[in-house]
Amino acid sequence: MIDYQTLFSLTPLLLVFNAVIIPLASVVYKKKVLLELVFSIALAVNFLLTSLVFLRISTGATIDYCFAGWSKPLGICYSVNAYNGFIAFLVSSIALAIGLYSIWYSRHLRNYVYFYTLYLIHLSGLLGFIYTTDIFNIYVMIEVVGLSAYSLVSLHHHRLKALVSSIRYALLGALYSILFLFSIILLYNYVGVLSIDYIIYRTAVVDLSIEVAIIFILVTIWFSLFLSAIFPNHFWLPDAHTEAPIPASAILSGLTVIAGFYLVSRIMRIIILVDSYYAVGINYILSNILLVFSTINVFYGVVMLSIEDDVKRILAYSTLLNMGYIFMGLSLGTPLGIAASLLHILNHSIGKALAFLSIGYIIRKYRTRNIYSLEGKGRENPVTTLFLAIALLHLIGIPPTGGFYSKLLLFQAFVEVGAYYSAITVVIGTALSVYGYTRLLEHLWHPPVYPTLESKRVEHLPVTVLASFTVLATSIFLVSILYPSINEFLINIGIELFEAL
Fold this sequence. Notes:
It is a single chain. The protein is mostly helical. The protein has a domain at 299-501. 77% of the residues lie in helices and 2% in strands. It has 20 helices and two strands. The protein has a two-stranded antiparallel sheet with strand order 1-2. The protein is globular. It starts with a helix and ends with a helix.
């Protein structure tokens, strides 16, 4: 019989173990192939274990595990249900696909040992953050994710801009995480526990100061806006994600940015139980704040998407645009809104990973990110350009790609509650983004105005790169094919989340 408790609890630890093994192995055995093997096996095993757990909890089961036998509220405990099991499965799946691509890309990195190590630590931090039930451990795992992210951004440390981008990202992250830690200490001083479930229980029997609750909630929301790059905490993302190595850009833009969304959704359980009168007012105010900020994100992202000349920055601004959509759904506070956000997280993660990886292959080949310098290069790389086109059409939301259904579901969620202005925002944002995305494809395929005498470079995709592209592109169409089942599953998650509230 499969011990599911051990399976899901050990996945973050196994990733850390392999992250330690890689630098040690590089000292003993100089051949890169061994490191590639350890890296690949770590990602594959993590995906397998996460998939088994996800299949188990998709039937409605919940799995809990407390380390060293110390139960809540004192012990460090992990819990997985349909909601965070879905997020963990998504993270592990996309990380594996990006990891396949990284095997080829890392051959062009002098410090590939650090890249492999940081990649696994980053993934471990994300999974620990997703599984933990302890609010202090949430802080610890966010620190693991943040430190590894800052390091990944600065991996090309010979470039001044990469260092500056990493330092700015790190300074902001340190400031907000310290404020988050202080708010946790303040809350703990009143309720006496750190387990989220027990905080909810204690707020029912302890006279929790409304001022303390508001401080904790506001700091957490502000920190979440930073993690997901929502206005006004968005400005660090374009530089950071542009200067990172291509696989790091893919995982940061596709997966790491959803941490803020997940953190807000976890804290919602605490908000509702402060006091019935205040909770309604707090939820109303926060919902409107999230809606306004995320709407600004949508319009800012779509404008910058249309005028930027750096192809990686184009995709970085696309992340701002899509995170705006995701938080708009969250601001609704309805099961359908949550389902729409989760479906768009799924579509954005797949599409953004494929877009970054495919354009990254072309960037690496021609050593430029300028959209005008890459004119006509798509003709020399028709297969890669095809995968890029699939990703961009998916991000636009053109049927039969899966991106169409998350935009449709988000539109329906706003219409359901009579928020017609927000529904129109989704339509306008999607329509305006068409120019920004197709502009990239047009430049890649259009022959240059002043052709050079340089001979054409034959497209030769490595096996791991082609496998990564194929898996991600297939997933885009699978989301479309399986939409009825996925939609039902995500709506049930939304209903269960609000029942828990």
